[in-house]
Write a structure and sequence with these properties.
heterodimer, A: about 425 residues, alpha/beta, Spore Coat Polysaccharide Biosynthesis Protein SpsA, Chain A, B: about 90 residues, Non-ribosomal Peptide Synthetase Peptidyl Carrier Protein, Chain A, about 55% helix, about 0% strand
């Protein structure tokens, strides 16, 4: 059986902006694993292909060994097609057979099981036609599958997903180095420290209320407190941080200050003091010293988020911090508002006040207004420099993908820049 | 209507807090007028607002002198069909 991940529907992808500008939804983290890793573990398959937005395909090929947007992957085997938003635990086990489909309320395929003979009868012009054909003609599954609908769903579920993934992975114990003196609280069965990880003296790892999973090559510097549930990805460094419960920190991050119930995709720096709570931070982000986000309103009402800069969406939660897209940088002393949506490739300069709740991608927030700043070329040079510092390469495919994001995000940015000019001229 | 040069001097004076009468075409924005990097972003935004034009950031920020800005903005206005005098 071949597993086919799909992420082609722009309206559902938009609910995961700005994180989904540069990655398929299934690569987002929740708990210890990505959404894709959860689905793969659930189905137990190794033959995998995927379909992403065309503008992302070339860049994504650099990151995965799976065939990307290859129509031939739809032939020759039983297919299990899954939208990246689907929650793994609701999917049927692979032992079942026959063709069936489940769609969302708009008719988009959430998952479909297609046997080879049935696949041959479906439209083969392109993946969208294939999915549309599958949605119309396959027999309906009686199973309804739950989906992740917004980025904050992942944030709010993160602590519980760490617990679930920790139990599922079944690893425990100290295989790395823990230097004395230190304090490990809770059951040792709820702590996993991988080989090559180094915990310096004077560190508290508190697993009393949830497991702590520390990957290979992680360094935890003195005076850090790691409170479970928590996941720290490979080669990340924790620098005396107060890591409160519910954090998932991807690989190669630098973490200082206070972090709570947040997800960092990877390769991002929050090196210094400052609070990050109930946030989702993309890759290659740098949060300047004392950057702080609010995750709770003073009146304790639910937090709304503007993903497009126009329409507020009520998250239904009183605790939502910031959503921050890839390659965004904040200056020292930046204050991010509750439920702020900060686009990708943005540059934020502090004003001493909380910033607006929406900053468009590629926007430079300078002197209290959104400007075009030093432009796209400057941002790309910075991205290239940041990536090379971590041994990664900025490629032509990356540039092409971000050029497409630049165009996609132009309307919101142009409107913000226009307003900025007016404000600046007064 | 004021000339392009007069309008550019007025905008520059407002952003950099200078006397417009002291600004000359040969002045370098950074070296002579003290423009810092953030102010160069403001200058571009304010020139766009003043003339109703859109400038390409890399090209606009490569302009170093007041006289260079006059030539550059005159060209952009012409390309974008914006009427100016002077």
């Amino acid at each position: 059986m071949r597993l086919i991940f799909i992420d082609r529907n722009e309206s559902s992808r938009a609910n995961f902006y700005p994180l989904s500008y540069s990655r398929p939804i299934w690569d987002l983290r929740c708990g210890i694993r990505s959404l894709a890793e959860k689905i793969i573990a659930r189905l137990g398959v190794s033959d995998i292909a995927c379909f992403v937005p065309d503008t992302m395909a070339e860049a994504y090929r650099q990151k995965t060994s799976w065939p990307v947007n290859d129509l031939s992957s739809l032939c020759g085997d039983e297919l299990f097609i899954v939208d990246g938003r689907v929650k793994a635990e609701g999917l049927p086990k692979t032992a079942q057979s026959g063709s069936e489909v489940t769609t969302d309320s708009e008719g988009n395929v959430l998952y479909a099981r297609v046997d080879p003979s049935q696949a041959a009868t479906l439209a083969q012009d392109d993946i969208d036609a294939f999915l549309s054909s599958a949605g119309r003609t396959l027999s309906r599954s009686e199973r309804s599958v739950a989906t992740w609908n917004y980025t904050w769903d992942l944030i709010l579920a993160n602590a519980e997903e760490i617990r679930r993934d920790f139990a599922s992975l079944g690893r425990q114990g100290i295989e790395g180095v823990v230097e004395e003196p230190n304090a490990l609280r809770g059951s040792r069965n709820d702590i996993y420290i991988a080989p090559g990880a180094l915990v310096h003296p004077m560190v508290v790892i508190d697993a009393e209320h949830g497991p702590v999973y520390i990957e290979q090559g992680v360094q935890i510097h003195p005076f850090s407190r790691i409170e479970g549930p928590c996941y720290i990805g490979a080669k990340s460094i924790v620098l005396g941080a107060k890591c409160r419960e519910g954090n998932s920190i991807g690989p190669m991050c630098r973490i200082g200050g206070e972090v709570e119930e947040s997800i960092l995709q990877g390769y991002s720096n929050k090196y210094h003091d400052g609070f990050l709570g109930h946030a989702y931070v993309g890759e290659w982000v740098n949060l300047g010293a004392l950057t702080t986000n609010s995750d709770l309103k003073n009146d304790y009402t639910t937090v709304s988020v503007m993903l497009d800069g126009k329409h507020a969406i009520d998250t239904g939660s009183t605790k939502v911090g910031s959503l921050i897209g890839d390659h965004t940088k904040t200056s020292i002393g930046t204050f991010l508002n509750t439920g702020a949506c900060i686009g990708a490739m943005a540059v934020l300069m502090a004003t001493g006040k909380p910033l607006p709740k929406f900053i468009p991608s590629f926007g430079w927030y300078v002197e209290g207004v959104v400007t075009k700043g030093f432009g796209r070329t400057s941002l790309y040079k910075t991205a290239e420099a940041a990536m090379s510092r971590r041994g990664c390469q900025w490629t032509g495919a990356d540039r092409a993908m971000w050029d497409a994001v630049f165009e996609l995000t132009a309307p919101a940015r142009n409107e913000a820049v226009r307003r900025g000019r007016i404000a600046m001229s007064k | 209507m004021a000339t392009i040069e007069e309008r550019i001097k007025q905008v520059t004076a407002r952003v950099l807090k200078l006397n417009p009468e002291e600004i000359r075409p040969e002045h370098n924005f950074a070296a002579d007028l003290g423009a810092e990097s953030v102010q160069s972003i403001e200058l571009v935004a304010m020139f766009e607002q003043e003339f109703g034009i859109e400038m390409e950031e890399d090209a606009a920020l490569a302009v170093e002198t007041v006289g260079g800005a006059i030539d550059f903005i005159r060209d952009v206005c012409r390309q974008q069909g914006v009427e100016t005098e002077g």
